[in-house]
Specification:
It is a single chain. With 218 residues, the chain is an all-alpha fold. The chain is 65% helix and 0% strand. Helix 2 runs antiparallel to helix 4, helix 2 packs parallel to helix 7 and helix 3 packs across helix 5.
Length: 218
Amino acid sequence: MPSGAFTKFESNMLVDVSRMVESHGQLNDDGPGRRGLGHITRGGVLLLCAAWELYLEELLIEAVEICIARCADPDVLPEPVKHTISDYVRASKHHFKPLAMSGDGWQTLYLEIAREHVSALNTPKRHNIDAMFLKLIGLADLSDNWSVGPDAVNDFVSARGDIAHRGKDAGYVTINRLRDEYIPQISRTAIESDNFVSLYLRNSFEPRRYPWNRRNIG
């Protein structure tokens, strides 16, 4: 099995996007030109980006929980993660926040920090994703392991933003682009992210085993 985050992405969220594509096919008479179905393709883009964003958030939390389970104390955490926790404690306005690190309190605090960070991920572009994975689990440059072009994910998220802010006045998204470009690219990128995070966690913490099975990419 892949991560719980990917299982949900594939079996739940991605299914809803596929149903949007099916609905478009049922309403389209297959004639030339547009059929006033732009609301469906726009909705499909919004839904797919929401699925991508939620997948990343849940993958990060799942990975943080594994880091916690495999670390006896915070000194074992990767350096970027220790900096993230330390900065959070120092910036806290609560006078006794450092006491939260005593005993196993660091685990609760670490998870609290992770949840706050992922809740702020409103634009799931490459640089934001890379920065968050580095801060929360110490994984640098996750996007370097994506096989899509360097701007593919960013362009998709920008298209979502255009739709969210301009609605019908946004650039027209064809069903072919949604079905044959956006969905395959985001699906493949999610699989590659899932696989690489699993490999990273295996190589970074004892015991040296994959936290979830990696998925073959067809």
